[in-house]
Amino acid sequence: MGVPVHAATGTSLAIVFLNAATGALDHLRRGRSLPKTGIAFGASGVLGAFAGVWVNHQLRGELILMLFSLLMLAQLSAWCAAGRWVPR
Fold this sequence. Notes:
By secondary structure, the chain is mainly α. The chain has one domain. The protein is 81% helix and 0% strand. Helix 1 (5-29) runs antiparallel to helix 2 (35-58). The longest helix has 25 residues, at 5-29.
C-alpha cells in the first residue's frame, strides 16, 4: 500500500484503541463489564503500548514485519492445537 512500516504500526495502534474504547464504553453502558478489571487491563495495555512504541523505533521496518508474521503464525498454531480453528 506504500505506507512506511513505522507509520502503519502507529496508525494501527490508534485504530485498535478507538475500537477497544468504543466496545468498552458500550459494555459499560449495558452493565456487562467489571470496571476495576477493565482499568487494570487498560493500564497494562497502555504500558504495553509504550513498550511497543519504543521497540518499534529501535528496529528496522523489515524486522518488525517479520516478527509480526511470526507472532501471527504462533497464534494460528495455538488455535489449531486447541482445536479452535479448522480450515474450511
